[in-house]
Predict the structure of SLC7A14.
Amino acid sequence: MEEKQNNTPALKRLFRLKQITNFQEEDEDSKNLKKVLGTGDLISLGVGSCVGTGMYLVTGIVAKTMAELGVRVPHTTGSAYIYSYVTVGEIIAFIIGWNMILEYIIGTAACASALSTCVDILSTGAISNVTSTWGDVWDSPPDILAWFITLVMMFVFVNGVKSSIQLNNFLSIINFLSWVIVVFVGLFFIHLSNWSPFAPFGIRGILKGAATCFYAFIGFDVIATTGEEAKDPKRSIPKAIITSLIILMVAYVSCTIILTLMVPYVELNEEAALVRVWAQIGYPFLQWVICIGAVSALTASMFGSMFPMPRIAYAMAKDGLIFRFLSEVNDKGVLVEMMSIGTLLAYTLVDGCVLILRYQTDQQKNYPSFISDTEGVDCGEEEETLDEQTPVSQLSGKIVLKLCFLALILIVIVELLIMDLDLLIPTVPLNIFICFVVGFLLLLIGLVLHVISKFPQDKQSGFVTPGVPWIPTLGIIVNIFLILRLFPSYFGSIHSLDVHWDGNIFQIWHQ
């Protein structure tokens, strides 16, 4: 085996695939994570991770594809890292794994900072007043309280997943009570005139805001990383993802509507809008009640950011991707946007994984679990689809894989052409030409997807994403579009971090 490994070309090893196997039987002598999480625990974890962040169209698309992957590769920890390892190769999984760890670290820092702000409000500014008198040692006062909160949360996790998930369930109950107060009390203070103008920044502002706020959608990854700890992952993960979406959509959208109808958006406090708004309408005592709910919600969200980090690292280490470099400081204020890109990249990979896996044979699970040295998927006997007339074959899987890459290239070209939406207004000859090219490329994409849809699919029992290949492709299109809406400087920042992190770790791994 070792001789075979040494004779394998280095480039081929970078794109080797992890086999889809029965992960429950992997490494029986090693210590695995305990299965203590039920469907209710996963729902609470997903809701707590996303509460107070936002909910957009793409979330529904991502949820369906993530749910199917949770069924196809159930007994694993690592979420999009494992899914990309199984589907597109080792080097891509390596990069995605570190991007996910990066986004969770930034999410933890953001939640800790927001928690510190809420506690400072409860203390009527006593904490910030003290730290602001510490001289000019730093450009801005250090957030000592945020550091302390992170330390406390670390000790909570040390006690084990069962006790920490009980704390998360308790916080979710407080979040629900806080939502009830905000919605039903806020109904008495709404003014429809506050929605005039309804969209002052137009479609550009909406799309830019959606792209920037996508960092909030890490709740799905949290649920997907619990595959090894869930009692029945094939049932619990899909149910938890879809149920969490429904709850979050109702809770967050209702809070947003009430908040913007109570006070014009330009007058909202940027640091703690949901808390400060009660003082703005003349009922300051209510901000103390809501602040307790805000602290609870932010604690649950911080819990959701910290929970998957060690699980992704655990999955990478279990696959032999050993790393030790774990520190990098960015001095630019682009952390939210960087995490948005990391999250969008992970979800784009999830959509692509569903699209590719649906048309591949599923004989890999007859093999023992190991990292394959082969370029593609090992196949035994061909497995028939549900209609038992159009079997999924290795040839059809390879053809679909090539068509998927062709569709991806066409999508990226279209997205680059329409980065400036004004180019779609046919007022000058250049714009007319661009509109013609975009229309032609969209027609080609539709044709490629139509051809893909005619190939046999491997539909397993359990949750299955409907509308393949159309729904995953729609998710990829919107994800890439949102990524391109961010400023170019964000790409430079995340590129420098990725190169520095991945380069150092990759050197250690291959030494």
